[in-house]
């Protein structure tokens, strides 16, 4: 099975807009534009650092290794408060790094990708 990765980029809003404009121009000229791999963009390294905290990164490892059957079980495994775990899970869901898999009455967090790549524009 091939490993799947999500790309997380750090680049300015202006760089992102220029890239989008280039893609739109190519489409308007009738060129085929190949789809890019999934990515999530931050406008600064500081924004990335505030979002991908050591605790959230540790959650990704726990989800991969322990495969908890619910958010409640994830909180118990990590010995963390349920409210804080829920907030972290929501952010990881928003970044599309995890997904929720139905297990009976529970929803189990699962990794959506094998990993992520960090690309920093300079």
Short description:
It is built from five helices and five strands, in the order βαβααααβββ. With 122 residues, it is α/β, with parallel strands linked by helices.
Could you give the order of the helices and strands? EHEHHHHEEE
| Count of discrete structural domains | 1
Q: Calculate Rg over CA atoms.
A: 17 Å
Please outline the major beta sheet.
Answer: 3 strands, parallel
Q: Kindly, what is the distance between the CA atoms of the first and last residues, rounded to a whole number of angstroms? A: 34 Å
Strand percentage: 15-25%
At the fourth level of CATH, the homologous superfamily is Winged helix-like DNA-binding domain superfamily/Winged helix DNA-binding domain
- Identify the strand order in the major beta sheet: 2-1-5
On the 0 to 100 scale, the average pLDDT is 89
Number of strands: 5
Number of DSSP helices? 5
Q: Kindly provide the name of the CATH class.
A: Mainly Alpha
Remind me, CATH topology?
A: Arc Repressor Mutant, subunit A
CATH 2nd-level architecture: Orthogonal Bundle
Shape: elongated
State the oligomer: single chain
Describe this structure in words.
Strand 3 and strand 4 form a beta hairpin. The chain has 122 residues and is α/β, with parallel strands linked by helices. The strands form two sheets. Strands 2-1-5 form a three-stranded parallel beta sheet. Strands 3-4 form a two-stranded antiparallel ribbon. It has a single domain, classed as Arc Repressor Mutant, subunit A (Orthogonal Bundle).
């Amino acid at each position: 099975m091939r490993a799947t990765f999500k790309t997380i980029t750090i680049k300015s809003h202006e760089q992102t807009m220029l890239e989008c404009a280039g893609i739109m121009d190519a489409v308007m000229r009738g060129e085929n534009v190949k789809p890019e791999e999934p990515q999530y963009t931050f406008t600064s390294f500081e924004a990335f650092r505030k979002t991908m905290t050591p605790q959230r990164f540790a959650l990704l490892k726990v989800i991969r290794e322990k495969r908890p059957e619910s958010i409640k079980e994830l909180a118990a495994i990590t010995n963390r408060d349920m409210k804080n775990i829920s907030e972290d899970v929501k952010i990881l869901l928003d970044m599309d790094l995890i997904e929720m898999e139905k297990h009976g009455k529970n929803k189990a967090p699962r990794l959506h990708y094998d990993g992520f790549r960090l690309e920093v524009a300079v």
